[in-house]
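quick one
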Amino acid sequence: MTVEKQRFAVNGGIGFGSKLTGKQLLVLTSFMDEKDELELTTFQQLYIDIPQAKVDAALTAFEDAGLSVYPVGNFVKSLRTCNFCKGSEQEGMPVAKEINNRIAGRPMPFTVRAAYTGCAVGCGEPRTNDIGVMKIKETYSLYAGGKAKGIDAQLGQILIEGASPEKLYSAIDRVLDLYAAQGKKREPLSKFVDRYGIEAMRNLVAH
Ligand code: SF4
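structure w/ iron/sulfur cluster:
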């Protein structure tokens, strides 16, 4: 008999590197049989398939272990980040956490990958993702429309520079609200930015 399963994306949340504790791994494996597999994605997430009857118990156990859990599919993914090598405050970890809280899991026409990096070295690869944030000194730059895959790969284009955290949050919200409302089904954000026009998008987030 086939056991119906539901897929979740999990990780250890935003911190110094994409890490899991032994306890978190043990909790994950407690909901797996010997032949079950965890899928490691390129986006600092693990995919785990949970039997439908155990979903509630698993979600409670994951939360207790400090795991973050996200839906899989056409949603905003959890924020990919750099390793904050120069320190939490200096590299804006609280801002990265706030962005993640605000946007991860929001339904979209197609999967949205958002990335954050704490300095211009850019270890979080913000310009090759749909939404990219780069902290430069005490302000933030926002990019949109990056695409890492395919022969039509492209860099995200600048939307705002020198922004405060509040201005940054507002700009990201506006971009995602627009895309959610006007993006075609399965139209990647990179294509939507090209179709809508980068100048029109800059005007949208300017005030
Ligand atoms: S982007 Fe900057 S702060 Fe973040 S890990 Fe790289 S060098 Fe360190």
